Amino acid sequence: MPERPTAVVLAAGVGARVGDATPKQFLPLNGIPVLARTVRSLAWCDRILVVHHPAHLDRTRTVLEEAGLGARVELTEGGPTRRSSIAAALAALEDAAADAPLVLQNAASPNTPRRLVEACIAGLDTHEVAQAFMPAVHTIFTHDGDELTEVLQRDRLGYSADPTVYRLGCLRRIVASQTQDDAAGEMTLDTARALGIPVVLVRSPGTNIKLTTHADLAVLQAVLGSGDGWADRPAD
Questions:
Q1: pTM
Q2: Predicted confidence band at 195 (pLDDT cuts at 50, 70, 90)?
Q3: Quick check: helix, strand or coil at residue 143?
Q4: Of 28, 35, 37, which Cα lies nearest the Cα of 57?
């Protein structure tokens, strides 16, 4: 049985790419807010920390309480960027042991199966970072304006999915390095590579969709079905 982790759910964004006035973590997904679905999928973890937008504390708390999750969740205020929100989470977890497994999950990924999270945690037996991913299925190329410049080798390409799982001490080291170097990027994986930290990849099912656009919302609605309670959530 994999170690039971601490889960950090990043819910401090405004979801601008969805193009909706409502932040995407609060959008209803077959009658249940996206955030509630995401947190519910991680309810088996030992500890759950939700990083919320400063202006959305009450709304975040209400969503979780109405879903019966309020007693299971700690809340901490996030920052204006993903990096600053992760740093806020680490500050709230300063009492946790360095070897503890930490699951970093975007609030907008409501259909991540438990078996995938556990497979990523198992990856910490040999690595300090495990990343869920999906192989590229489309032809991907680089371009300069409207001119194609290079077709990339698809069998060597993939894209990240939720979650990313770390030994907590490793994530602390990554964030400290980003802060010290004033790194411009948001991705901890780039910094892990720069520090020489190997990352193991764990293949994700295609139904593990992060809500980025309204098209993603439509797909998630179809994948989860039309049930109106928790019965339509994916099996653990």
A1: 0.90
A2: very high
A3: strand
A4: 35
